Amino acid sequence: MTAYIFRRLLQAIPLVFGILTLVFVILQVAPGDPMAIYMHPSVAPEVLEQMRENYGLDQPVHIQYVRWLKSFLSGDLGTSLTQNRPIAAILAERIPNTLLLSGTSLLLIFAIGIAIGIVQAVRQHSKLDHALTLGALFIYSMPSFWLGLMLILILAYRVHWVEWWPEALKFPPSGMDSVNYDLLSTWGKFTDRLDHLVLPSIALGVSSAASVARYTRSSMLEVIRQDYIRTARAKGLPERTVILKHALKNALLPIITLLGLYLPFLFSGAVLVEVVFAWPGMGRAIYDAIQQRDYPTVMATTFVFAVMVVIANLIADILYAVVDPRIRYERERR
Amino acid sequence: MSASGGNGSRKRLSAAALLPGLPQLLRGQRRAGLSLVALALSMLAVLVFGFDRVLATFTVGRIDYWVAFLTLLAGLAAAWWLGVSWGRGSSEDSAAGASQWAIAWREFEKNRPAMLGLYLMVALYLVTLLAPYLTSYEPSVIVDDIMRVRHLAPSQDHLMGTDKYGRDVYTRILYGARISLSIGFIAVGISIALGTLVGAVSGYFGGVVDAVLMRFVDTLISFPRLVLLITVIALFQPSILVVVVVLGLTLWPSTARIVRGEVLSLREREFIEAARALGLGSPRIILRHIIPNVLGPVIVAATLGLGNIILIEAGLSFLGLSAPPPTPSWGNIITDGREYLVEAWWVSTFPGLAIVFTVVSFNLIGDGLRDALDPRLRV
Amino acid sequence: MSGPILQVENLRTYFHTADGLVRAVDGVSFNLGRGETLGIVGESGCGKSITCLSILRLVDPPGRIEPDSTIRLGDRELTRLSEAAMREVRGNAISMIFQEPMTSLNPVWTIGGQIAEAVRLHRGVGRAEGRERAAEMLGLVGLANPQRRLDDYPHELSGGMRQRAMIAMALACDPDVLLADEPTTALDVTIQAEILDLLCELQERLGMAMIFVSHDLGVVAQIADRVIVMYAGQVLEEGATEGIFSRPRHPYTEGLLRSTPKLTAKLPRLATIAGSVPSPKRWPAGCRFHPRCPHAWDRCREDVPPLLAVDQPSRCWLEEEPQRRTRRGEAGG
To answer: Chain A: nearest CA to B76, how far in angstroms?
Structure first.
């Protein structure tokens, strides 16, 4: 097991190098003077000259590449042109926010998606099954940012025109917390944050939830046909136990690997959803940086996003190995 | 069905000339008949209700008017031609030994949701091409009297209202469809071609080539797509060309993976062995023997990818990183409406619905194709 | 012996599919005495497995047990029990073991857990007791080191060991009836023999009744007291094992016997029954075996022969017109 984790870690290393290299290559092939990305109204020409020297842009490409690797791997992601701060410091503030949003979405995706998938599989070919399949198709085909706007329009604004609508189901249209956040009690802070999380995490998560539901459904249907399900029934177990204990675990195992697939998708969505909801995360950071032509920040954020995906995949793989006794066994034998 | 009787076929021909699809309907082929009737009638409706705009084609001198005009003619011609040729072909078709594609098509035809998706897609393309005839407004022209026409609610004059510059949202969505759909198609074309090639080469040669290419694919897949896209596009300055190329270049890895998997299993099959034993060169084996055999999964991936790319393009243009402003695209119309979301909900809502229905239709077709082309599912 | 433990009467299990009615089991009747082993033989697709699954009411939709089929366990009519009451029967009064030991155990739960589950469910005992019983059962079926095996996952056991574990699971609640659906078919020959011996021994020791389904006549001859021969969803012949094997009455039974390799007799080649089992969607009219029967005449094509209540009943018109028996049948193959 340890050996497996170790080997899996080793596999991730070339990937990080690949990511770094690709980011470097993109910078290199971008049109114009490589320094152009640092040209900014807020940067004086002398500083630019100084930077050119600092970055060794007069040096040959391979030297530049090694320098770039060194600085990124040591955690020095450069300096933001607009905020005059190390990019690492900026991102350190933003990463938890993005993780909070994506994490909540991920919970939502798997909780809702799996539940619906089970219901559909158990009631295969029923009206409910067809309705849910159709609904999932539409939700799956929705752009997250548009769904976000629609949620804001309806659940943050329009509902205020409806008298009987319960207060608890009116949500704030944007931001991470209310203006009086600092004055709130711990519990108050928690509920306030939760209140702000509802709409963005739904907007970000539902389309993936629809696809998880679809996956769970077909995975469950596959499992329900298996001989061991008949064995479980022949033991006299109630249907509930058969489904939730014997079928579900088998059906869910492959879904764990989906975790690694959904995360890049979720991060992509996070850029849009963070823009729509003014959520101060990494997506918002990269969007703002693009708007302000702060390219060093753009590149660094891209890099960090990719590394987060690699880490997530690593976690998903290890989790899978831990949960599935067959894999555990194979790995040990090898 | 004796199609040989000269009398019968002449009668059918005249019925088809009267209204394409009529003979099919009379023979009880409901699906073929109804779709032909619908196609012909919608073309006629455009001709009747948009006749002034059809006439304008000859004076306005803009290319989209000419495209619309040709589409109209082609649509009418296609309806009639199909009406006649289907009437003839059907009897021989069922008798002859059906090819793999014919079987797949028959399977696809039985799939109702997939056919619905196909009709939706055909309708979408017709609407896109006929755009100038379907609206009397111009998509990007801002009238002088903005205050009077801005943010008008949906009404008979403005089916989907007007935006903050007083432009007709319905018109902008019609024209925006062109951008969204053509970017989607070209980008998918590029990524499918590239992905198939890389996947085939990787799977066929194996070894170092495979390892290097697949590590590259892994690397690309590690980036959240949209993040990589916006980074590159921002660096290269957004324009439609850049968006198309970058989308095409970043979306191929998943196709490459699929193709590689298929090729790996194909490589060991007898006919490849035989081709190799005949001394055929690798490029020839890849092009002539391997690629045709992986076409099924690739087509499925392409159709599902289209839906995906349309969503991604919408996201890009929502962020202002696709077609630059006065040109309408579904994403940037939504952005236009965002500021005044509460006051003028229609501006953001309708283009979003257009995206949803488009993507739904591609997904339906893709699912249908998968069922039709996957022999493992066919009993 | 106080009457049969299990009485099946006119059991009909039909599948109501979109393509039409599939009469998989079509009027099967038999009795199973206490402590008796009943063999069910027949080619694949003749309804043996569905008969077993029907007894436990485990036939998946669109399969359905038709009304006025009766399955009586002691004094309980199983077809009329509620689902909850039926669950009480499954794994408790009637247990079943399946053909594929490789896929019949849940791969993600331990052997011990899967055995204990049934015990805890039916006996209402706690975790520790369930585990203890599981270990006891694993020992009973001859697994070495049962305590250690409890925490093994199915993939860590060989095929034979898995089938032993399946048997342990089925017997954990001391069932009155064990349904064994081709329990040895998927195993190696040597292991087949071991499992057969084990089943024989356990049956004697625990005094349960057993229905042993197999297409392998040799295996059935070894283990069964009585045999029924099934074909096309019906019973064609029924009788004591000895009688069936030495004096088969039905041409189908004869055919089956002749197509079984024997060590003693040296035939130039194995005889086969011409043709194959017809599609259950369209059973042949009259006697269902007539298209493949070497003796068939007009009556066989039109009228359905009855299964008369005699010593070794055979569903064949030859019973009434034995002179119709042709030489072709014996010489053929």
So the answer is: 32
From the list A147, A266, A298, which residue is nearest B231 (CB)?
Answer: A298
Nearest CB to A233 within list C58, C100, C166: C58
DSSP strand pairing (C209-214 vs C177-181)? parallel
Q: Identify the pLDDT of residue C264.
A: 57
Segment B318-333, tens digit of pLDDT: 988 887 778 888 888 8
Yes or no: say if A260 and A312 are a contact pair by the CB < 8 Å rule: yes
Q: What is the pLDDT of residues B79-106, one digit of tens each?
A: 777 777 665 555 444 444 456 677 777 7
What are the extents of the domains in chain B? 8-83, 146-377
What is the SS3 assignment for C8-62?
EEEEEEEEEECCEEEEEEEEEEEEECCCCEEEEECCCCCCHHHHHHHHCCCCCCC
Mean per-residue pLDDT, A300-304: 89
Q: What ranges do the domains of chain A cover?
A: 91-289+308-333
Nearest to C104 among A228, A237, A329 (CB): A228
Nearest to B215 among A14, A276, A313 (CB): A14
Touch criterion met for A and B (3+ Cβ pairs within 8 Å) = yes
Number of Cβ pairs closer than 8 Å across A and B?
148
Task: For residue C120, give the amino acid letter.
Answer: R
**Residue C147: its H or E element:** helix C146-149
**Fold held by B146-377:** MetI-like fold (1.10.3720)
Domain assignments of chain C as residue spans, ordered by start: 103-173, 247-330
Q: Classify strands C63-65 and C6-17 as parallel, antiparallel or unpaired.
A: antiparallel
Query: Above pLDDT 90, what percent of chain B?
Result: 3
Residue B173 near residue B333, CB atoms below 8 Å: yes
**Residue A6: phi, psi to the nearest 5?**
-60, -45
Top residue of B180, B227, B241 to mutate, by most chain A CBs within 10 Å, is B227
Select A91-289+308-333's CATH number: 3.30.1490.190, 1.20.272.10, 1.10.3720.10, 3.30.420.40. Answer: 1.10.3720.10
C90/A233 touch (CB, cutoff 8 Å), yes or no: yes
What's the full length of chain A, in residues?
334
Q: Which chain C residue lies closest to A332 (C-alpha atoms)?
A: C156
A106: its two tokens: 């991920």
pLDDT of B377 over the 60 cut: no
Q: Give contacts of B360 with chain A, Cβ < 8 Å.
A: 137-138, 141
- Does residue B202 carry a pLDDT above 70? yes
Half-sphere exposure of C6 (CA within 13 A, CB side): 30
Question: How many other C-beta atoms lie within 10 A of the C-beta of residue B266?
Answer: 18
Of B265-279, C4-18, C296-310, the least confident: B265-279
Band the pLDDT of A150: cuts 50, 70, 90.
very high
Helices (H), chain A: 2-29, 45-54, 61-73, 87-122, 127-140, 144-151, 186-224, 227-234, 239-241, 248-276, 282-291, 295-323, 325-333
Whether C136 and chain A come into contact, CB under 8 Å, resolves to no
In this prediction the ipTM stands at: 0.85
